[in-house]
Amino acid sequence: MKRIYLISLGCPKNQVDSEVILGCLVRDGWVPTPTLEEADVAIVNTCAFLQAAVQESLETILEVVQEKEKGTVKQLVVTGCLPQRYGEEIVQELPEVDLWTGTGDFPEIPRWLKNGGPRSLIGNPTYLYDHTTPRLIANTPHSAYVKIAEGCSHPCTFCLIPRLRGGYRSRGMDSLVQEVRRLASAGVVEVNLVAQDTTYYGTDLGEQWGLWRLLERLHTIEGLRWIRILYGYPLVKNFPPGFLEMIFAFAFVVARRAYGVDWATLYTSSTGSVGEEKTVGMVRIVGSFCGLQLHVRDC
Q1: Cβ atoms 229, 264 nearer than 8 A
Q2: Has residue 119 got a pLDDT over 60?
Q3: Which end of the chain is more exposed for a tag (fewer CB within 10 A), N or C?
Q4: 15-61, pLDDT tens digit by residue?
Q5: Which one, of 35, 36, 43, 39, lies nearest residue 14 by Cα?
Q6: Rounded CA gap, 240 and 77, in Å?
Q7: What span, in angstroms and rounded, lies between the C-alpha atoms of 30 and 165?
Q8: What DSSP assignment string belongs to 199-264?
Q9: Boundaries of every domain in the chain
Q10: What is the percentage of the chain residues whose pLDDT exceeds 90?
Q11: Is the pTM of this model over 0.85?
Q12: Which CATH number fits domain 2-121: 3.40.50.2300, 3.40.50.12160, 3.50.50.60, 3.30.420.40?
């Protein structure tokens, strides 16, 4: 039995990568373990966006190195933003690591573990998973992150993301719908859409107002109750006319279903005539939508 232990650091986007790594390894016969001490191979998926994240990644790697020196772990793989940021410099500084892969090279990990190869696989990040890619959901079974795009093409001088993740590249809308439908059929009721900039989705594919069109398709999926949109970028051209109205329209429907009061009635009536509990509840529902989260099924 081949046993693997994965430590995922950083953001939810990194978590999706970790779930893809685990999914591909499980497909190849590897068994995830709940503790490092039980594993033959340890993988650390690193973050390096801020200096504090770099420090955390290095400390985690060194902790695993200690276990490797004890003979507990046979091989150590480090992937993600740390090797992508520092390249051969970090590879030379930590010879205890058996394999380094960048943010676009982690799909090579199963092949490397089977056949071996060079100690460093750090190329230009172009990889983008799709609905056919194996994933092992690592958080609660009712909630999942879905990466709708990778990379970033905004030329912000203060930001490392284009260097760490490459240029912006959207996933196909059909692929996203199929993935979310499969997740919903497996019991997921909440999907969290993530990207470096979710509101830019589809622009690189020539899709005008891609996020809006994606939401129009996702909210009809049977069994799905919540859609959350993370990492939006406040660029006006990415918010089409009617986008926020669509968000509020969902909110009004949910509020009416939950409390049996039409929004117009609440708006024109006093709190006393409707009832404080209903008033507060409806306002909370609609207020939650200001954070760009869609509740698409009955409470």
Answers
A1: no
A2: yes
A3: N
A4: 999 999 999 999 999 999 999 999 999 999 999 999 999 999 999 99
A5: 43
A6: 43
A7: 27
A8: GGTTGGGT-TTHHHHHHHHHTTSTT--EEEE-S----GGGS-TTHHHHHHHHHHHHHHHHHS--HH
A9: 2-121, 143-238, 243-295
A10: 65
A11: no
A12: 3.40.50.12160
Q: DSSP character for 42?
A: E
In degrees and rounded to multiples of 5, residue 288 shows phi and psi of -65, -30
State phi, psi for 158 to the nearest 5 degrees: -90, -5
Query: What six digits make up the tokens of 75?
Result: 């091989």
User: Cα 32 to chain center, whole Å?
Assistant: 20
Going by CATH, does the domain composed of 143-238 fall within 3.30.200.20?
no
pLDDT digits (tens, 9 = 90+) for 191-211: 999 999 998 999 999 987 888
Pinpoint the alpha helices (H) of 33-187.
Answer: 51-70, 81-86, 88-93, 109-115, 161-165, 173-185
- Calculate ∠ Cα 89-162-19, nearest 5°: 80
